[in-house]
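Quality-control log, excerpt.
Job 1 of 2 completed; input and output follow.
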Amino acid sequence: MRRRILLLAALALSLAGCAVGPDYQRPELELPAAFAVAAVGDGAAVVNREWWQAFDDPTLDRLVQVALRHNADMLQAIAAVERADALLREAGAALLPELGTEASAGRSRTSAAASPLGSASTRSSFRAVVLTSFELDFWGRLRRAREAALAQALGSRYARDTVALSLAGAVAQAYIALRALDAQVAVSQQSLENRDRTRRLIRNRYQGGIASPLEVQQAEGAYASAAAQLLELQRQRQLLENQLGVLTGQLDLRIPSGSLQSLPLPPVPPPGLPSALLELRPDIREAEARLMAASANIGVARAALFPAISLTGSLGSESRELSELLGSGSMFWSLGGRLDLPLFDAGRRRARVDQATAVQQEALAGYIGTVRNAFREVSDALVSLRQTAEIEEALAARVAAAQEALRLAEIRYEAGYSPFLEVLDAQRTLNEAELAYISNRQERLTASVLLFKALGGGWRSEG
C-alpha cells in the first residue's frame, strides 16, 4: 500500500511539470532605431530620475514631493499595489496543501424501544482530527494562475509609477504656468503704470489746450484695457494655485510670486536618441504586464478542460471517554483521492478559453498601441523643443523692435510729428510682444516636461 502511494505521488509530481497554455514571449514591434528629430540645446546625455530637479527650483521640488505623498490618485495607486500583492499571496498559497483541524464532543441517549438490548442507554463521543486536501496541478492551472497574479502585481506597480510620473508632470506643468502668469502679471503691471503715466500726461496736455478730448478718451480706454488684462491674469493665477492645492493635497496652498526667467532650460537629449529608451516608460511596462497576465489566463482556462485530481487525508482519534482520546487504540486515518472529469457542459469551458484568448488579443493590441503612442509623444516633444527654441529667438527680436518703436513713437508725439494713436499702437504692440515671448518660454519649458514624461522620466547615456 505504501509503495503504491509513493508511486502515485511520483507520477503526480512528474505530470505536474507540464503546464498547458502559451508561454509568454514579448511581441516583435517594428520601430525606428532612433528618433528623427533632435532638440536644440547642449545635448546633455544624462538626466536624473527625479527629473523635475533639472529646473533647479526648491519650490517645485517641494510641491512634487508633497504631491507624491498626499495626492488622492497616488494613494489609490498604492492601495491597488497592496491589493495585487494580496492576490498574489492567495494564488501562491493554492500551490500548497491546506491543513485544518476539527474537534467534536457529544452525548446521546438511546431509547429502550430502539435499543437491541431492550433497555435505554446513554453514551458519550469525543473526536479530534487533522484534515488535509491538495489539488495535484497536473495541467498547470494553479501555476498559470500564479503567473497571472504575479503579472498583475507587477502591473499594479507600473501603474503606480505611471500615476507618479503623470502627477509629477502635472505639478511641473501647473507650476511653470503659474510662473508664466507671474511674468505676465509683471509685464501687465508695468504696462498699466506706463499707460497711467501717459494718461496723466494727456490730461495735463488737454488742460493746457494741446491735446484733444479724443486723445484723452483714447488714453483712458488704453488704461482700462490694461487694468482688465491685469485682473484677468491675477484671476487665472489664483485658479492655478487652487489646482496645485488639489494636486498636492494642500487645499490652502499659497505660493509667493516668482520669476519665470529663474527657471533654467533643462538639458536636452543628444542627437540619435535610441527608441529603445521607451522601455523605461512605466505605462509600456504596465501594458506588457497586462499582456503577460492575459497569456497566463489562457492556460488557466485550458487546464479546466482536463481532469482535476485532488488528494485528501485525515488523521485523528476518537473515543467514548475524553481520557481515552489520546490513547493508542483511538487513532484513525484515511487517505483518498478525487477525480473531477468534465463530460458535458454545453461548451462552457471551451467558451472560457475563447474568452481568455480574446482578452489576450485585446491586451496585445493595447500594448502595441501604447508603444506606438509613446513613440509619437517623444517625437512631438522633440519637435516642440526645437521649434519653441527657434521661435524664442524671433520673439526676442520682436520685443526689442517693439521697445524701440515705442520709444520713437513717444518722441515723435511729443515733438508733434505723429498722432497719439501711434503711441497707443506702439504700447499695445510691445505688450503683445512681451506676453508672446513669455508664452513661448512657457511652451518651451512645458515641452521639456513632456519629453521627460514621454521618456519615462529621463534618459541615460549609452556609455
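Job 2 of 2 completed; input and output follow.
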Amino acid sequence: MTTITYIEHDGTEHVVEAENDSSVMRGAVDNGIPGIDADCGGECSCATCHVIVTSNWMEVVGRPNDTEESMLDLNPEREPNSRLSCQIVVSDALDGLIVNLPEFQM
C-alpha cells in the first residue's frame, strides 16, 4: 500500500492508502475523493481525472506519453506538472505523493 494525499482546490486534504499496481485515479475513486470523476474508467480518453502533481514529485511520477499529452492539451487548467491520474501507476516509489485537484473538476 502507498500513501497518497489529494488536495482539493479549497485546501481540503484527503490522505488515502492506494493499492500498488493500481492507478492514482483508482485510489481516488475507491476512496470517494471528490473531483476525480474518471468518466472513461481509466482509458485516457476523457481527462476527468486531471491532477496537478507537486513539483518535487514530477521526476518520480514522470512525464505524460503522447496520448496523455493530447488529452491534457484540451484541458483549460493545464499546468506544466499536470497529469491524468489514470496514467500514474501506484508503486512504493510514490509513497507520500501529493496531488492537487483543479478547481474546474470540483
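Post-run check on job 2. Residues 2-105 form a domain with the Ubiquitin-like (UB roll) fold (CATH 3.10.20.30).
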